[in-house]
Amino acid sequence: MEHIPQHIINILRSTTFQNLTEQEQSDLNCWLEEDEENKRLWLRFSSKDIFKNDLNTFGKYDWESSFKTFEQNHLQVADEKIKKLFNPWYAAVSVMIIGLLIGISYYITVGQYEDLPSQAIVPAENHAEMLLPSGERITLNEGSDLMIIDSSFNINKKHSQAGSFVGIPSHFSVVTPKGKKYALQLPDGSKVWMSVDTRIAYDEFDSLRSLTLSGEAYFEVAKRTFKNENGTSGLKPFIVKTKGMHVEVLGTHFNVSAYPDAKIQRTTLMEGKVKVSNEKHVCVLLPGEEARLQDGKIVRKEIDTDQNVAWKDGYFIFNEDKLSDILVEVSKWYNVDIVYLDEEVKEEQYEGMLSRNSQLIDIISVLEGTNEVTFKFKKRTIYVSKK
């Protein structure tokens, strides 16, 4: 394929490949039959997923620097007129490529919206996987309200799609993907409600219980004792570790939100007492208080705890929250992607309470009620723009 004829370029720049005239379709078919390379190029243009990746790569490429390198390596001639001849050629090629990309990217990102979300998009359901040190993966039963691992580290068959498991190691992990949640009782009797897109790794030792968290979870920690070296009994600490924060408890109810992509990590205390620390700061929380980790600093403050633990009871609660923050939660809960066509809409604020069992269209209808924002859909992607 030495070059692309101009009339084919015009066809490829079309914002919809499905409404070509008979003549355009005929020209396109003839061009495709000329060369296998033409067919491969056409597949890239007509595949949204492939071309999205091409667009991202193309947008990051430093064309000006690359062309200067080409000039230095291949055009080191005395006659400046020759160099000047290449500049219009370079500009023309750039304009052609940019025009082509704009046309097709418009088709990819703007054309063929749906007014309603797919019926396949549903609220978060019960589902998780347990990962064992051996590499074995156990699919946990979707219908279980609370999966129980007993004190002998056994899972009853009703909690697993693969039957009973005896003698699970004292170290294991449980994962919920986007759009899935799960609740389980640990071998020590503590209960953990895992939100969507969350991972926990549990270890139990003679004198310590340790859980590493990425995501969000609500804990009801059971009090446990152990024998000290001198034979006396002591309370067995339960430590929740996140990236940058440790939460130490003996027996209490609290929530930890520590998603990797979030700017702020939060520990919210409902009952009892917890110690929150990192390498530089330590604070002790009382019920109704929150420890907030941001930029390496831990700040304690009194809050209305209902909003931070509402997810566990099945609600979205918005209190002058930005649309961008709300849609982060919606994205995880309904397993959808969010694309902003107007960045300014991110700052729109909302108040209210909605059930997390609502269909996505019900959530969207409330958000559109301000008459400031509108939503369109393609499969599992939501496009947000100013109304």
From TrEMBL:
Domain (FecR protein) ranges: 174-275
Domain Protein FecR C-terminal: 315-384
Keywords carried by this UniProt record: Membrane, Transmembrane, Transmembrane helix
Source organism superkingdom: Bacteria
Pfam name, any one: FecR
Signal peptide residue numbers: none
Transmembrane stretches, start-end: 89-108
Protein's UniProt name: FecR domain-containing protein
Native source species: Sphingobacterium kitahiroshimense
